[in-house]
Structures are given as C-alpha cells and as structure tokens.
Structure to design on (179 residues):
C-alpha cells in the first residue's frame, strides 16, 4: 500500500516537471536537443564508415599473395556490407531531421579511422580492419547509450544490430590472424 502511494507521487512529480519545462520535439516525437546530439554523433560515425569503406576497397584491389582469392572475396563481402550501413546511417540522420555529411573533406577532417594506401599484405589489411572495427564498435556503444536515454528506438536497434554483427566479425578476423 505504502509502495503504491510513493509510486503515484513519483509519477505526479514527473508529469508536473514535464508540464513546466517546454520541450522542443521533432517530427517523430523525440526531444530536439537529444536528436541533435545523436545526429552529430551519427555524422561522426558516418565519416568513419566512409573512410573505412574506401580502405577496404583498396585492400580488395591491392591484396597480393597466396591468400589473394580468399581475401579479395572476403573484402568485397565486407565493403558491400559497409556501403549498406553507410546508407542506413545517412538516412537515419535524415529521419532525425538533420543532413548527413556528404563531402570527403568533411569525412577526412572528422574521422578517427585514417585512409590507408598501398596495403597488399593480408595480415596488414586484416589488422587495419580490426582497428577500424574497434573504433566503430566503441562509437556505436556510445550511440546505443545516448539513443536509449533519448527513447530513440530506431537508432538504438540499429546500433545494437551493428555491434552484435561486428563483434562477431572481430572474432572471425582475429581468428584468421591467429589471435
Ligand atoms: Fe572487385
């Protein structure tokens, strides 16, 4: 009985706070300030995906040696997957009411993942992929938390899917490396 009373009190305090604080809400009913923060971080994520994507295309083209056929195909599979995520992230930013970065100058100045060139050795390429995944997964975990706080289920579900999928890829690429 007493627990029920205190719950009721909590709800009324919350709703009175909601009434007094006028929040700007987006077209999909999310808090505007939280959405802005999410789109900034999604744009940062997008920049990292774009550089990573181009790096993996380079690995696909330039790889040499006895693992050529295996890695050439594996890297194609990866960049095809990345390009789908790039589109999804960009379109999520639009859905949240902002504009996705779409210039290489912005990607280069924003991304932590740096462009790679002339990598033809399998282990170097795979290590670079593992390093990039660590960056992406870490950034996606931050977005997972922020989107949870903002009640942004759409972004939250995306990040959750990406993290799970890429953690598995990290295991597989690490195994290939013999780690
Ligand atoms: Fe190709």
């Amino acid at each position: 009985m007493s627990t029920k009373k205190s719950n009721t009190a909590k709800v009324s305090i919350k709703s009175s706070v909601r009434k007094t604080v006028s929040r700007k809400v987006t077209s999909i009913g999310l808090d505007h300030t939280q959405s802005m923060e999410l789109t900034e971080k999604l744009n940062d994520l997008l920049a990292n995906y774009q550089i990573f994507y181009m790096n993996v295309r380079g690995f696909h083209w330039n790889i040499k040696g006895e693992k050529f056929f295996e890695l050439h195909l594996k890297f194609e599979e990866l960049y095809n997957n990345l390009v789908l995520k790039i589109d999804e992230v960009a379109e999520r930013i639009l859905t949240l009411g902002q504009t996705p970065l779409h210039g290489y100058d912005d990607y280069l100045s924003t991304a932590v993942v740096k462009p790679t060139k002339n990598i033809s050795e399998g282990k170097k390429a795979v290590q670079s992929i593992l390093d990039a995944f660590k960056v992406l997964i870490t950034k996606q975990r931050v977005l997972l938390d922020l989107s949870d706080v903002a009640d942004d289920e759409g972004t939250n579900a995306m990040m959750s899917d990406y993290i799970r999928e890429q953690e598995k890829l990290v295991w597989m690429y690490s195994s290939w490396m013999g780690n």
